[in-house]
Write a structure and sequence with these properties.
The structure is a single chain. The chain has 11 helices and 10 strands. The strands form 2 sheets. It has an 8-stranded parallel sheet with strand order 3-4-5-6-7-8-9-10. Helix 5 links the parallel strand 7 and strand 8. It starts with a strand and ends in a 7-residue tail after the last helix. Helix 1 crosses helix 2 and helix 3 packs across helix 4. Helices cover 39% and strands 13% of the residues. The protein has a single domain, classed as TIM Barrel (Alpha-Beta Barrel). It is an alpha/beta fold.
Length: 294
Amino acid sequence: MITLTLNNGVEMPALGYGVFQTPPAETATAVAEAFRVGYRHIDTAAAYFNEAGVGAAIAASGLPREGLFLETKVWVSDYGYDETLHAFDKASAKLGVEQLDLLILHQPAPSRWERVVAAYKALETLYADGKVRAIGVSNFMPDHLARLLGETSIVPAVNQIEVHPHFQQREAQEANAAHGILTQAWSPIGGITFYPGFTDGRSSTLNDATIAAIATTHGRTPAQVMLRWHLQEGRSAIPKSVTPSRIAENFDVLSFTLSEEEVAAIDSLDTGVRGGPDPEAARDEWFDHVIPEA
């Protein structure tokens, strides 16, 4: 497994298994299959409502805790200093662990900025207390990062954003790199489709002719080519699937290499069309979803 070193020296497997949109009742089985295949980095979130399923898979796996990298996210309704400290308690109890490897804020929520800053300061406290090994953010655009860095002390280790060949967010990636923040790609193969009202005009990466041709050259699938592209450009990637064959396929991306010309060809495919919600938007009904206790 390829590992990446975060800005505080913590090592993280570059390829993680994501459980976004995985039904809670199916999560433990899916994560158990991911463990069987070889994944050791699991990405979940309070707002996925399946942290307990991840925890059940961890408990049943018999794998040593030190060999796993567990990442989860604080939801907006739990922003605020004391609220975010409690969000850690809820998450760690559901996951069945005392320490998280990476805890990040799920959305920038600029309409609630004071609570965002307070939440991040709580992450800093959790980090100082050794309850988390690294802290970060998700969906933060360059202006959000600049504001956050101006009001807090610890530079995020990770910024998890939508990145795939048809939506590459180069400006956001460059801002992350300038601050020493690792870009982590959600929807790394452009496969997240359930965003009502946010997907108009989005093209399918899986049907892209350029990617298909590269896949044929290597005897691989388009998904494998895209994941290899992320890894060769130094990003972390979080693919998701509940289908055992695809879980295994997405992990099997280390035994081939894309040429410089192939990487450049994929780089040229950016459409600038976002597949998910705009991080600038105020979505109060969505943000106010209550995260249950453990």
